[in-house]
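Marked as duplicate of an earlier ticket. Keeping the data here for the record.
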Amino acid sequence: MVDQFVGTWKLTSSENFDDYMKAVGMSFATRQVGNMTKPNLIISVGEEGAISIKAQSTFKTTQINFNLNEEFDETTVDDRKTKTVFTLENGKLMQKQMWDGKETTIERDLQDGKLVAKCVMGDVVAVRTYEKDA
């Protein structure tokens, strides 16, 4: 299922993230903080199969809990209220957020032992790479 994603992941590189944040509508101040923040992602699976993703940084810690293929209400780090659904497609953990007639996807995949998150909003694509913490 999603066991290959379980663990603590440290952000090691971020490409085009400012343009992605701008595309989803984040303010300049929020983008400045977002560009400086290097969050750890902590992914776990509970006893009932619910998945938890915690983004932990010195600036802010957020956590979402969800079941695959079930839409839920999410409040994003920049305070957007979205309808979000996670699916597992070809070994990739896919997150789709919808709000105000807009839609973005975050595709998480394992490549060479690294967690690669591809954030897509329209024609803007950001790639954030995480390495597993020992």
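See parent ticket for discussion. Residues 28-36 form the longest helix (9 residues).
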